[in-house]
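Q: My labmate handed me this sequence with no annotations at all. I'd like to see what the chain might look like in three dimensions before we decide whether it's worth expressing. Could you predict it?
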Amino acid sequence: MKIVHVEDDHLLAAEIEQEIKKQFPGAQIELIRTESEFRRRLPELVASRPDLFIIDVMLRWADTAPNLPEPPAEVMKEGRFSAGVRCQRLLTEKDSTIPVIFFTVLENSDLEAFRKGSTESTPYLQKSHDYSPILAKVKEIMQRREAEKRN
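A: Here is what I predict for the chain of 151 residues:
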């Protein structure tokens, strides 16, 4: 199982990776930390055919460094609060068959304003210290994908 986790909080990302690997030994988890990294690497990510993307909704554009990549106009206009939704839209344009889970601190009502045009079937889970909901959703999606492969 290969999962791409789009998350700018490295401590949370490490905890999620640890929990997923406990429940799914052998799982490979690739961490993408910023929206600019996601955009830059999207072609290779899609080509590698991950089983699932877990995407935080609020992401930094880029890590602080010399020669920061210039954000596109939509990023400047919308800001970081909808970065994960933009990432999901870009992914869906390239490959709409790869499942996505939004994993965010936002309430579902807050998320609705950003989801215009996104796939409504994209599950949303609110972050908490109880990782059982995200683990259950990963298991559900992986079981569904395995069943689809068999049919």
